[in-house]
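Page 42, continued from yesterday. The earlier attempt failed because a stray header line got pasted into the input along with the sequence. Redoing it now with the clean sequence only.
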Amino acid sequence: MKQAANTVPVELDVESLDAGGRGVARDAEGKVVFVEDALGGERVRALRLQSKSSYGIARTIEVLRASNGRRTPRCPHFGVCGGCATQHADAATQVAAKQRGLEENLARIGKVRPETLLRPIYGNEWGYRHRARLTARYVAKKGGVLVGFHERHSSFVVEMSECHVLPEHVSRLIPALRELIDALSIRERLPQVELAVGDEATVLVFRILEPLAAADEDRLRSFAKRHGICLWLQPGGPETAQPFHPPAPRALDYALPEFGVRIAFRPTDFTQVNHAVNQVLVSRALRLLDPQDGERIGDLFCGLGNFSLPIARSGATVLGIEGSVPLVDRARQNARANGLAGRAEFVNDDLFKVDAQKLAAHGPFDKVLVDPPRDGAIEIMTALPAAWPRRIVYVSCDTATLARDAGYLVHEKSFRFVAAGVVNMFPHTAHVESIALFERGQ
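This time it went through. C-alpha cells are written below.
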C-alpha cells in the first residue's frame, strides 16, 4: 500500500504555505497533506513520500496552476539541498507565511493575540549567511570529497559547486575547498568546515580528527594565502579551535553602527548569521525596550553582548546573564573594548534552572530583554516577581515556545501583549525569528 502511494501521482489544491515552507492541502479523504515545493493557491501533481494516520507528506512533480508568488529558484541545487526550503517563493510570500505561522501559534498554543502586529523585518535574501557549518565527506563513488549541506531528508552530502545564501566570495571557494581537502592525508578524518564571516575577516575552521602531515600544513597555508582567508584548526570541542594561518589573524567582529559598538567573536561562538538584519533587529529591540538614564535592565541569555552593549550605550545600566562561561568572558572583553564596562556587567548563570529566589538575587530590573534558545524561557517567566519588570522585550527563534511563554505572561502574570512580528533572519528557510513586547497591566 505504501509503495503504491509513492508511485501514483495525486492532484492537490494547496490552501496555504506553512511555516516549514511546505504547501498545505487536503486529499480526497480530507486528510492534511504537506506538499514540498508547493505554494498556497496552487494546484499541483505530487508524489506521496509518507502516509501517516493523521497526515501525509508529498513532493510536487508538476505545477498545474501557479501562484503569483512563485518564481524560479536561483540555486541549481535547490530541491536536493536541505539548506533552503522556499526559493520557489518570492520574499513577500515567504515572509507572509512566517507571519501567519507566528499568529497561528500565538492563538493556538498561547491563546493570545498581540494588540499590534509589527511590520516584518526584511533584508538581502542572497549572500546573507555569515555563519554556516558545512559537512566534508570523502565519497569514492562521487570521485572525491564533497563539501556542502546535507540533502533533504538525508545524511548524504550535496555535491555542491555554489551556494547563493553564502557570501559570494565564500560560494566561489567551494570547488577549491573540495580540491584542497581531497588532497590532504586526513581527507577521511576531516568531517566539518565551519564558516564565520566578520566585517574585515573570513574564517574557515577545519575540524580535524587526526594531526596534519607536514605536506598538509603546506597546502593549508598556501590555500589561506591564495584566497585571503583565515584558517583555523579545531582538534576537539569548540574552545580548542585556534588560528593556523595566519598565526595572528585579523580581528573577527561586526559593527552595530547606530550604537557605535563593535562586537568581537571567535569563529565557533554563537552569533546571528545575518549581520545586516541583526542591525535592524537590535534597533527595533532597543526602540521597544526604550532604555533610559537611571534604569537597570536585565539582558537574559545575553551571549556576547549583542543587545547588552547597545542598551548600555543608550544610557541605562545593564546586567547580562549567560549560561556559557566563555561567552560571558568575551562579553566582558567587548564591554571594555567599547568603553562600556562601567555600564555593562556580565555574570554566568544557568537560566534554565533559575527560580524566583535566584532571579530576585540578580534583580530588581526596570525592564528585561530575553533572547533564549529554541527551548524558550518559561523558567524565567514563572520566576518573575509581581513588582518587576514593567516591560519585557522577547526575541525568539521558535514561535511555539514564544507562544507558550506569551500565554503564561498574559494569563498568569497579567502582562499586556503589546506587539509582535517576524524577522526574516533566514530567507528561503523555515526558520522564523520573531520579536514581542509585553508590559505590565495597569
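Notes: Residues 26 and 32 are 5 Å apart (CA to CA).
Reminder to self: strip header lines before submitting.
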